[in-house]
Amino acid sequence: MESCCRCCMPCLHRLWDRLWPDARRRSDTHDNHVIANPAAEAAEIRTVSGDIRVPSPKKRPVQLYAALFDFEARSDEELTVKEGDKLSVIEKRGDYVLAKKLTGSLESGLVPANYVALLQDEFAKHKWYYGNINRVKAEKLLLASQNNDGSFLVRISESHSDEYTISTRGEGKVYHFRIQRSSIGAYFVSDKLSFATLGELISYYQRNPRILGVLLKEPCAQQRELFDMEPWERPREEFQLHKKLGEGHFGEVWEALWTAENRKVAIKMLKQEDTKQDEFVKEVQALKSLHHPKLIQLLAMCSRGEPVYIVTELMCKGSLKSYLTGAEGQVLTSAHLIYMGSQIAEGMAYLEDRSIVHRDLAARNILVGDDLVCKVADFGLARIIKDSVYTASRNTKIPVRWTAPEAAIHQRFSVKSDVWSFGVLLYEMMSRGKMPYEGKSNKEVMDLLTSGFRLPCPPRCPPNIYHIMMGCWAAEPIKRPSFHALHSQLDSIYARIYFKTIEV
Description:
SH3 type barrels; alpha+beta; six-stranded mixed beta sheet; tyrosine-protein kinase; 28% helix; 504 residues; 5 domains; SHC Adaptor Protein
């Protein structure tokens, strides 16, 4: 319905209750604020700082796979593939995957799961790929004296984390072209031409500059090695501390003004008495090497003298823990929370692909920005590991309420112990910031977990979300889902809520 009069409000409220029952108490007192067509617009609630909209779900492209061997179909259900064929995997079916070709016939069918492999970090080999740099940085690099017209680079889109941008220099200016993704994962600038890989797209436009209208002649002249070693060190005098935001394992966290850049930032300080500076250095190294829209971004550091500063982007809403217990957090709907949880799973999936274990995943270590944007923070306990399991020393401080039993008892941390922590994080979110195992000591928590006890379903928590939590808390680590699976599940549930096909 496109319009509504006062007499129709009870009907609209009944519809609203059925679709969004946990938002009822807010919409009751704001009749003039109820959306006339909730199926066509993002749902919104009234909060202390204005309206919080739930964005439309984006179509997330299927991840790119490659065939490892030739496979000849033996039935109509199977798909013939050649070694090197690019595929999108739709779903796993036992020992097979349902796959679709991205070039040629675009057929789909079953292929043995061990015949395909996920392509990770496929662009890192290209000199033109600069990852997660912004528009301003790209223009600065391309306009440098060592570059000429036709110099170009490719970067992650600032507004769409699953898309890319070509930035190229022409006539002394820099032009930007958005590379979009189709629903099957293909890349395109114009919807008339699509390519299985980003490399194929770039090669095509290098050979056919008239179609794009600009030359893609040579990758940006600045060497990737020099770019990766960009000077992070900044003078301490460039930062003016404004207010203390909190205190963590390594020391205080402050909001500050970076005067040279005229922007607000967050600064983490190393405690003077903390002698484990090697741990601190590892955190910085991890931050410098990780680039994803759902991970907090390192901007600079001051390592000469004490206290050492780690400078990161500032998230205006603070930690998810404090946000959930604040005025806005208390009126969030299940849809809002599922949307936020999906973002966290997306960031953790990126770490999972790189065998990085966070070890302290909890609401206190998630930061919130405008429009419900969530980013994973605090890599102070993260480790880059080769055998996928990290064994901690016995005197390491462990957040027992968020830690998997095998990690708390045997100090065996892995991506799967992070999945357990994600389940507890979902509990924090769905209970609007409640302390897990409230009223219990750490020893009592461990005794409960070893006896098979699990946290109960929070009030107003959808059953399918609690089912996901229980999956994260499987006693055997191997039976817990991957972060990619969690991201996919939460995305799917969120889309169904948004388009009003299920109730929460």
